[in-house]
Amino acid sequence: MEWGAASAAFPWDRWRQAVWKGARKDMAVVKCKMCGGDIAVGKECSVADCTHCGAKQTVPNLDSGKKLILFSRAARLLRACDFDKAAGVYRDIAEEFPTEAEARWGLVLCRYGVTYLDSPEGGKAPACHRASFDSVLDDGDFEQALENADPPARRIYREEAKAIEGSRKEVLERAAAEPPCDILICCGEEALPLAQSVQDVLVGEGCRVFSCPGTLDEASSAAWEPAIFAALYSARVMLVFGTEGGQFSAPWVKNQWSRFLDLIAQGEEKVLLPCYRDLNACDMPKEFSGLRAYNMGRPGDWEDLLCQVVEIAGQSPAAAPPAQKAASSPEAGGPGVSYFLTERATIRRLSGLVCAGANHTAAVRADGSVIAGGYPDDGQCSVAGWRDAVAVVAGMGHTVALRADGTAVAAGKNDFGQCNVAPWTDVTALAAGVSHTVALRSDGTVSAIGKNDHGQCSVAGWKDIVAVAADGYRTIGLKADGTVAVAGWTSSHYKSRVLAWRDIVGIASGAYHTVGLREDGTVTAVGSNDIPDWRDIVAVSTGAGHSVGLKADGTVVAVGDNKFGQCEVSDWRDIVAVAAGAQHTVGVRLDGSVVATGNRRNGQCDVADWKLFSDLRGLEEKIRTAEVRRQELEQLNQERSALKKELANLKGLFSGKRRKELEEQLAELESAIENYAAP
């Protein structure tokens, strides 16, 4: 829409009255990005909560009526998955209002085709309908949105970008497993018979054809995106079918051919061929002008199309998408190490497979059992009967494992009660210091037990924590916003530096130093162990006097005390998890074997015969499934508690019917919980 004299004539007063009807004078109504519900927001407000779905989200600065109607239009198009048109409106807003952060963020959502679908964990999660090899975190519009946003909005932009980045990476990983094709067919439901007849002939000619279903919605489009993405990159030819002009511009159809045209514009040797019947060629999208179009109602065009497609497709075999080439292991024929070291959630799961204490090493096997070796006299290696473990941590003389059901088990030295973890529930991660143990719960709170002479267990007030670390004097908590919390002994210099960290995604702490992993793969540290200019780091671990970093390519770097060779890791390859003990370092290879270097005096490095798994993909999926089951069980227990409370408070003469309903519901929940608890 052109805004000039026409916009000046727009009845702004009437429109403003309609939009602001029922709201306060200083409020306006916008649509929730997650559920589409109405949100009343004030002027100068950058963040709002949806009263319908509870989602916290960014909102535009609605300081003008014109801006509000433009944002309303863009949001409507975005919800309809018309990403190109929505992007056009967001660009208009960005040009007219250069400091409006939400316009830049809207361009990001359009570029990656983001909608929000129901998540298995509850709430809404972003889905990418237009995946890309380019990271969301490196997107120019995302950076501009951060620059223009205030601190509350900036935090939410970062959180949403991370979630979208996870969705993007998942699409690429799944796309890597898709077979290549020669020809990609794109059409709506009405043109399916026409497209199918052409596809049958091409398949008979030996062409590899991929055809997306003619009917898609948000959920099915997200499910099909990996296959569509792989086909977009591998196909040499795209055929777009339509029997009415509007069919070519349907969102799910346009979402495919517009991306194919973008690849052509970028120099890819591809050909798009529009195919139509029962309409005027002039009714096709303007983007098709200049392309050779085929009238499928004419026998000559039908034959010409088939000949040209077979000829183009036969010029060279279809190539696998770049993601597929990058993710494969030539030796094993399966996913390589980079496949597993691309997502923060996966890295955290794998990091829990192995741990290193002062004089012992422990690890989790694929069957949930735990193996340990090294100094045994304090009982820290007495783990033979443990089952259903998904992660393990080690202190100086004790070992603690996290079970799949969110409980914990411990063995070893217990002089300060550091092994008294049996009452803990709903645990998602653990950390062990010299003589204390730390638990992170699903609600972001933290508990700690054990030695507390420096206040290292004083974590009761912590909230929004996503990861924990511990050493002899401190407990470190990583917050959801990328900042860090500290409990225990610190110098003023140490504390001021650590509390100033930003954009942290991983933490580790040794005897005299603490390490933070930044979002960009660099590392920062405070204490006695200086970190060099490391790059592409995905996980960190610390010993008494050394630090270890796992790189995205499966290699390992180390720095610091090397008296026993604990830093001699330069020749390690295909590593998916590392752990640093007091004077030794342990790594888990892609094939499930374990390697160690450093002090061997107590047998803590005798791991050559350990085999934790044979299929890492299967193990990672098993751990992921356990997390989902634990969350589902937690929800069931909450529902049971609520029912019991209502039942206990039920009174009155006419409460019998409701009591019976509650008792039936409670019985069903009890049965469901029992089934979850069953092996």
Describe the structure in your own words.
This protein is α+β, with helices and mostly antiparallel strands. It folds into four domains: 17-175, no CATH class; 183-325, Toll/interleukin-1 receptor homology (TIR) domain (Rossmann fold, 3-Layer(aba) Sandwich); 339-614, Regulator of chromosome condensation 1/beta-lactamase-inhibitor protein II (Methylamine Dehydrogenase, Chain H); 622-677. Helix content is 34%, strand content 24%. The protein is built from 18 helices and 32 strands. It has a five-stranded parallel β-sheet with strand order 8-7-9-10-11, with helices on both faces. Strands 12-13-14 form a three-stranded antiparallel β-sheet, with no helix packed on it. The chain has a three-stranded antiparallel β-sheet with strand order 15-16-17.
Throw out a few tags for this protein.
single chain; 679 residues; alpha+beta; Rossmann fold; Methylamine Dehydrogenase, Chain H; 4 domains; five-stranded parallel beta sheet
Write a compact overview of the structure shown.
The protein is α+β, with helices and mostly antiparallel strands and about 675 residues long. Helix content is about 35%, strand content about 25%. The protein folds into four domains: about 15-175, no CATH class; about 185-325, 3-Layer(aba) Sandwich (Rossmann fold), CATH 3.40.50.10140; about 340-615, Regulator of chromosome condensation 1/beta-lactamase-inhibitor protein II (Methylamine Dehydrogenase, Chain H), CATH 2.130.10; about 620-675.
